[in-house]
């Protein structure tokens, strides 16, 4: 693959053409949060916008942009940080996120990102939406209070036999919500159900008989912050340079 040169916060860097901009920014030491972006292997979704940076003078979600030669990026700026913080605050106000009682506290990406953007309380009024739990499946259930509509589950969790989507979207606009195809969900293996629960960046997808009786796992962000993990992952998955 060919190399391109771009400027990130005044520093000229090299990257492989076509790499996601957010990965390049992180690899060069600047933390930009993500919630819908599961990593380069799965591709971008561009639904949460918390990775917003200024690119060539315009704000854009950096997970959706492949790097190109001559690109000028402003990521570590006061204006960009405030925009990302505002988006995170809106995500908190659009749901009902009671972190102390949530099964995924300490492993929740939204919670971890909230700490990293220095959110104390949202500047926006809380909506306190009325939602319904979906517990029709034998193996998993949806705690819709916590859903941030990142759509990771819709795009990445599929029936292993048919390739059909297990999760889908109903309605439109503010009434949109994630639904489960119960028949397909009941066919999920134990491993796939646990993977879906881990894939969800919040505590919306829960494995039945696991969510309350047993901890989902170690509280990984108490051992290493979401910022540290993101920057380390960016270094570990970097493409080897081409001479």
Automatic annotation (TrEMBL):
It holds the Pfam family Fer2_4. SMART domains: NADH-G_4Fe-4S_3. Its cofactor is [4Fe-4S] cluster. Keywords: 4Fe-4S, Iron, Iron-sulfur, Metal-binding. PROSITE patterns: 2FE2S_FER_2, 4FE4S_HC3, COMPLEX1_75K_2, COMPLEX1_75K_3. Transmembrane segments: none annotated. InterPro entries: 2Fe-2S_ferredoxin-like_sf, 2Fe-2S_ferredoxin-type, NAD-red_Hydgase_HoxS_gsu, NADH_UbQ_OxRdtase_75kDa_su_CS, NADH_UbQ_OxRdtase_ferredoxin, NADH_UbQ_OxRdtase_Gsu_4Fe4S-bd. The keyword Isomerase does not apply. Residues 2-79 form the 2Fe-2S ferredoxin-type domain. Residues 79-118 form the 4Fe-4S His(Cys)3-ligated-type domain. This is 2Fe-2S iron-sulfur cluster-binding protein. The lineage of its organism: Bacteria, Pseudomonadati, Spirochaetota, Spirochaetia, Spirochaetales.
